[in-house]
Specification:
The protein is α/β, with parallel strands linked by helices. Helix content is 45%, strand content 19%. It is globular and about 55 Å long.
Length: 300
């Protein structure tokens, strides 16, 4: 049994990262060249994956303050999903929408919205990402200059990362832990010498032996989901309802299509209901527009 929690699984990521000191260390490492040092982190929302087969990933909405008093918003996702670039932009723009709705009307706004950073951790990587860290923003395509500075995004492709013991920066240590912590039985003394308070606290929280019996059971279940996903990917299979329907059509299985479409519609209804609930709509409204029963909605 590994000594440390694997941060790639949902439980491990949420359990270890939902700590202000740990999260500040991570954000300051990744964003060191992008903004002033972050001094406080508030967890506005922590979302675990939906309770449907094939859904994995954890997201954080973070309200951060820098040492100069600037407020920045951070949307953070740890997952590998189909159309992840589109999903990433959806989550960032949704966070922007919430910020504007909560504030004044356009004509009363005295300053632009707070900067929004999107950080997306991809355990599986993507063939189009050739670097461990890909940074994006809104550019003028002709002048190659930044057109709008309110949003910067970071895609961390863990399979592309190679640890260099000669370059022990906080950023490299964090990427190394995100990718490999679960398979380590010891940490190099040189890492401890370079680690800040947040990294040291991470190693303390990530000690498998310190988990309660209930926490360990949750961790085991989360690791099983991760291992199943990795195993399916290694054998060339696609997961999720959309992939299942596509595979059924491709192979000509009429039964697969007949069963897959209703299942996909029901999962879509659950996603709609969860979004409506998160936006504060009443149960009656959720029932009306999602088509789910009261019992199904209460179970969410």
């Amino acid at each position: 049994m590994a000594k440390y929690i694997d941060l790639r699984c949902d439980f491990g990521f949420k359990f270890c990262m939902q700590d202000e000191t740990v999260m500040k260390s991570f954000l300051n490492a990744i964003l060191e060249d992008e903004t002033e040092r972050i001094t406080s982190v508030k967890f506005e929302n922590v979302e675990m994956p939906r309770v449907t087969k094939g859904q994995r990933g954890v997201s954080f909405d973070l309200l951060c303050t820098t040492e100069r008093g600037e407020t920045i918003l951070i949307e953070m996702q740890n997952s590998s999903q189909k159309f992840f670039k589109t999903r990433a932009m959806f989550y960032v723009h949704n966070l922007m929408r919430k910020q504007i709705v909560r504030g004044d009307k356009w004509e009363k706004m005295e300053k632009d919205i707070a900067r929004i950073f999107g950080i997306f951790i991809l355990g599986e990587g993507d063939k189009n990402l050739t670097k461990a860290i890909t940074r994006t923003s809104v550019f003028d395509r002709d002048e190659l200059t930044e057109f709008w500075d309110r949003n910067h995004n970071f895609f961390l492709s863990l399979p592309k990362f190679t640890f260099n013991k000669e370059n022990l920066t906080s950023k490299n240590i964090w990427l190394h832990f995100l990718k490999n912590l679960g398979s380590m039985d010891r940490i190099s003394p040189s890492v401890y010498e370079r680690a800040d308070e947040g990294l040291l606290k991470l190693l303390e929280k990530a000690n498998v032996a310190a988990l309660s019996e209930e926490e360990y059971d949750l961790y085991e279940a989360s690791m099983k989901a991760l291992e199943d996903e990795i195993d399916m990917e290694e054998h060339g299979y696609k997961r999720g309802v959309e992939e299942g329907i596509e595979l059924g059509i491709e192979k000509g299985f009429k039964k697969g299509i007949e069963e897959g479409i209703p299942q996909g519609s029901h999962i879509h209804a659950i996603e709609v209901a969860q979004k409506m609930i998160s936006d504060g709509l009443s149960i009656d409204m959720v029932i009306k527009y999602s088509g789910l029963s009261k019992e199904e909605i209460e179970a969410l």
